Automatic annotation (TrEMBL):
Annotated source species: Candidatus Rhodobacter oscarellae
Annotated InterPro entries: Aminotransferase_I/II_large, AspAT/PAT-like, NHTrfase_class1_PyrdxlP-BS, PyrdxlP-dep_Trfase, PyrdxlP-dep_Trfase_major
Protein name per Swiss-Prot or TrEMBL: Aminotransferase
Domain of life: Bacteria
Catalysed reactions listed for this entry: L-aspartate + 2-oxoglutarate = oxaloacetate + L-glutamate
PANTHER family: ASPARTATE AMINOTRANSFERASE
Domain Aminotransferase class I/classII large: 12-360
Length: 372
């Protein structure tokens, strides 16, 4: 808010706070959206999602995961956030406890509370590279009904390893937990392998995967996503959609179908700027000890450890804004586990990003006490 107020008052600020592309939706997708709207697909659309779109999503999932998937495993939602809310409505009753990993996307606790349940955070600590530990999940699992995970992760940029995902599956099975997996950044993998929760055979019958067009196709404002899950749960979620959102506009679904059918190259083109900027960041950060990045293997963020400066994430972010006119998010905004960190969104043009990150590094170095 302070950064926005400064900008409104005419003060130039480099904003590295927003998890949104600095490019807009591809004109070809918008042209298809316009064409389908002009053709008349502006009335009520199929509430579960059009058969063609659900088939395309199922084909995408099958191709990426190797798990046979059909439209009966898919319900279309008005974006990923609506998908998260619907998924928790399905797996939690009022008074239940829903677990989630800290650091977390800021809506997670409110989403659990919104369905009448109690949120409980499980810390993924910096010393473990922000990989959740099975023992920590098990220690908090008594009385809980679900676990929400997010990989590639916002805010850290960490991709959960296959070993981490397998340990999560075993823990969910052992403690009778539903697994809700937010995988909206699954096309932004810079290093390593993304293992979808849908690939975890041990828990597939108790797993709901949330995804969307927002990050993979720069369609954040179009509000279109989906939930992937067991057929009987998807049937109930379709019933929920009938009584809540009543579906997604047909011309937007048609545009999403066009985008998915355009092939993986379009997704790669959308991801390319973040891949470049991540490589730039790795090079810049290799020469300093004042700001160290968590393993940035995916998504559009860096999580910088600035504890060497002696400041909290909030203190560092405020001083950086005041003195350098650069806005970043304090790690404390995303939970206790990210204290002493700041999140940097790689969502400005390459040249501006390199300049801003270089200034952040120099700022941190100036604050870091030097040894004897």
């Amino acid at each position: 808010m302070r950064a926005r107020d400064m900008i409104a008052a005419g003060t130039p600020v480099i904003e590295l706070t927003i998890g949104e592309h600095d490019i807009r939706t591809d004109p070809r997708i918008l042209d298809e959206m316009h064409r389908r709207a002009k053709a008349g697909h502006t009335g009520y659309a199929s509430v579960p999602g059009t058969k063609a779109l659900r088939d395309a999503v199922a084909a995408r999932v099958t191709a990426r995961t190797g798990v046979p998937t059909t439209r009966d495993n898919v319900v279309v939602t008005p974006g990923g956030q609506a998908g998260l809310f619907a998924a928790h409505t399905a797996v939690l009753d009022p008074g239940d406890t829903g677990l989630f990993i800290d650091p977390y996307y800021t809506t997670y606790p409110g989403t659990v509370r919104g369905v009448g349940a109690k949120p409980r955070a499980i810390k993924a600590r910096p010393r473990h590279g922000f990989q959740p530990q099975a023992a920590d999940i098990a220690a908090q699992a008594d009385g809980a009904r679900s676990l929400l995970i997010n990989s590639p992760n916002n805010p850290t940029g960490v991709v959960y390893t296959p070993e981490t995902m397998q340990s999560i599956a075993r823990t969910c099975a052992d403690h009778d937990l539903w697994l809700v997996s937010d995988e909206v950044y699954d096309t932004q993998i810079w290093n390593g392998t993304h293992l979808s929760a849908w690939q975890l055979e041990e828990t597939r019958n108790r797993t709901l995967v949330v995804n969307s067009m927002s990050k993979s196709f720069a369609m954040t404002g179009s509000r279109i996503g989906w939930i992937l899950g067991p057929e009987h749960v998807i049937a109930h979620l379709i019933d929920l959609s009938t009584h809540t959102t009543y579906g997604v506009p047909g011309y937007i679904q048609d545009a999403a179908l066009f985008a998915l059918q355009a092939g993986e190259q379009l997704e790669a083109d959308i991801a390319a700027p973040f891949r470049r900027r991540r490589a730039m960041a790795v090079e810049l950060l290799a020469h300093t000890n004042a700001a160290k990045s968590a393993p940035c293997d995916g998504a559009m963020y860096l999580m910088l450890d600035i504890r060497a400066t002696g400041l909290s994430g909030e203190g560092f972010a405020n001083r950086l804004l005041d003195q350098e006119r650069i806005a970043v998010m304090p790690g404390e905004s995303f939970g206790e586990a990210a204290a002493g960190h700041v999140r940097v969104a790689m969502t400005v043009a390459d040249e501006m990003f390199a300049e801003a990150l270089g200034r952040i590094i120099h700022f941190a170095e100036a604050l870091t006490p030097r040894g004897p």
